Amino acid sequence: MAYFVRASSRSNTEFVVQDEEWGNVFDVVPERDDDVIQVIQGARLFETLDERELRTLIPLLHRRDYFPRDVIIQQGAPGAGLYIIAGGEAEVILENDEGEDIVLATLGAGRMFGEMSLLDGEPRAASVVSTARSHVLGFFRADLMDLATHSPALGFRIVLRLGQLMKERLRETLTEYRGIEQSARQGRRREQEALEARVPASS
Fold first, then answer.
1. Per-residue CA distances from 202 to 190, 195, 198 (Å)
2. Closest C-alpha to 26, from 66, 55, 57, 53
3. Half-sphere exposure of 134 (CA within 13 A, CB side)
4. Is 11 a domain residue?
5. Do 177 and 80 form a contact (C-beta atoms < 8 A)?
6. Which residue in 18, 26, 57, 202 has the fewest CB atoms around it within 10 Å?
């Protein structure tokens, strides 16, 4: 079994389907599509691959068109794989505990998202919704497994690169956390100093 994203309203999520049904939803990317080569070469996961390796990937990619406000991935749905915006634009949206939608980022052509689900299949941390007519390329966990079977060296390179990206993301998260922690400490210190300034010294 595998997952795909069906372009739909915000209420729909990723559906479980048989692998052979993907062709009804995603178009297989033509093997000699140079425009696709240029797009995936700009994605961080594939930027270290040469043209021959990129062409090996093309038959495993799936293309889908989305209209504005279509859901590409849904927060909380099981992750199936990564997506690359070949054209158009989308927003990363987080629904908080109060049910409010918070826009975390805007993604344009060439941006990649959802890559961590190639390994873990964990629920999506946020939704990605198209804001314009968009063309998206999908590369799913089943595709990576197929690649690892038929081209193990290339599959290993992609998994290794994915591990590097995860390490970079963890480092960025820790740096951001330290910055927030430092700002909080400074804020508490200023509050304490202001409080002490208002309290008269005892005689």
1. 22, 15, 12
2. 66
3. 30
4. yes
5. no
6. 202
